[in-house]
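Bench log. Compound arrived from synthesis this morning; before running ITC I wanted a structural hypothesis for how magnesium ion sits in the protein. Inputs:
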Amino acid sequence: MNQPEYKIGAGHDVHRLVTGRRLILGGKDIPFEKGLEGHSDADVLVHAVCDAILGALGCGDIGEHFPDTDPAYKGISSLVLLENCRALMEERGYAVNNLDCIVFAERPKLSPHKKDMEENLARVLKTDPGLLNIKATTTEGLGFTGRQEGIAAQCTLLLKALNIETQNHRKDQHGFKSL
Ligand code: MG
């Protein structure tokens, strides 16, 4: 099989808001009276992006790669997990084509932080921040995000194969039929 030129992935995650924790979103420490609970730094946005990469690659999910029972991941910056996912993506011959994210949070207001979050993600993913988009929305007071019990994040990611022509050409030479 020739390597597909594009692969799409979806990510979704939820973490509970609690007192006594820092709020880290998109690798940014955001001043707020509550933070997200979790084994790692509970960066719900980065977790959704990790899951989208793993999904696009057909490599399972974040829980399989970084189990929350493993003490190695306790309190870890989720950007480190994202770095691992990026390494896997590179190893499989893909790069980010574009990424679109939504964070669902009633509070705090995230618009002043979106640019920094995009830059953090772009740095770790080794891509142009212009290919990433982060949207923030409230849920109009409805549901667990509306009641400020938690924050949710969702994303859609498209990966593009690196050197697709070279790779397909190589396969041709080894007797694979070109599509
Ligand atoms: Mg998570």
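What the model suggests: The two ends are 9 Å apart (CA to CA). The chain has one domain: 6-173.
ITC booked for Thursday regardless.
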